[in-house]
Design a protein that fits this description.
By secondary structure, this protein is α/β, with parallel strands linked by helices. The chain folds into two domains: 1-64 and 144-232, Rossmann fold (3-Layer(aba) Sandwich); 66-140, Trehalose-6-phosphate phosphatase related protein, domain 2 (Alpha-Beta Plaits, 2-Layer Sandwich). The chain is built from seven helices and eleven strands. The strands form three sheets. It has a four-stranded mixed sheet, with helices on both faces. β9 (168-171), α6 (177-186) and β10 form a beta-alpha-beta unit. The chain is globular and about 70 Å long. The mean pLDDT is 92. It comes from Gossypium aridum.
């Protein structure tokens, strides 16, 4: 997949938008030519100035929730302490948001874990609780999500009002719906949901698994390379 994404980034501006900490995502992907939006888009950074993939005059860096960092660190410590009695629960600090994973928690304990998390958050009205795929997400109450991050990237790249630019957003989580909705409302580009099962979604299309995503990206690269070869002959 990394090889395919690297080729994709040579053809199109490419971003990874994740709920995880931006540094963690970068250390996993290790492709300097990409744009990274971590913490559900609250920590955005583009390729360094001078990179072939950098279409702007300087590296993009945007962190709309910086003022919440001390509070998030404080809540992280409390959640670790509060949830340690629940086997399988894992609290992850994603810098600008927190994740409480319950994939490895006995289903009978899910409700109890949720109450533990809520008991901590009741003293922090500036943080909100949402749920993803077997994960509870704690984020600042600012109006920012993956959809807002997508809009910011389009603006930063100068693509927001372009009629010849077609954004494609691929995601498999409930939190990706914000980005799908942005594209649908704008009438620009489309979203692709990755799921083996039918779901209500704002995405226009779906793929069933990562292998299909990789095949789709590979075909995009092939189409772009063919277009460039055709243009060079004209």
């Amino acid at each position: 997949m990394r090889k395919t994404v690297r080729k994709l980034a040579k053809c199109f501006p490419t971003a990874i938008v994740s709920g995880r900490c931006r540094d963690k995502v970068y250390n996993f992907v290790k492709l300097a030519e990409l744009y990274y939006a971590g913490s559900h888009g609250m920590d955005i950074k583009g390729p360094e100035k001078g990179s072939k993939s950098n279409k702007v005059t300087e590296s993009v860096l945007f962190q709309p929730a910086s003022e919440f960092l001390p509070m998030i660190d404080e809540v992280y410590k409390q959640l670790v302490e509060t949830t340690k009695s629940t086997p399988g629960a894992k609290v992850e600090n994603n810098k600008f948001c927190l994740s409480v994973h319950f994939r490895c928690v006995d289903e009978k304990k899910w409700s109890e874990l949720a109450q533990q998390v809520k008991s901590v958050l009741k003293d922090y009205p500036k943080l909100r609780l949402t749920q993803g795929r077997k994960v509870l997400e704690i984020r600042p109450t600012i109006k920012w999500d993956k959809g807002k991050a997508l809009e910011f990237l389009l603006e930063s790249l100068g693509f927001a009002n372009c009629t010849d630019v077609f954004p494609v957003y691929i995601g498999d989580d409930r939190t990706d719906e914000d980005a799908f909705k942005i594209l649908r409302d704008r009438g620009q580009g489309f979203g692709i949901l990755v799921s083996k099962f039918p779901k209500d979604t704002n995405a226009s299309y779906s793929l069933q698994e990562p292998d299909e995503v990789m095949d789709f990206l590979r075909r995009l690269v092939e189409w772009k390379e063919l277009s460039l070869r055709t243009q060079s002959r004209m």
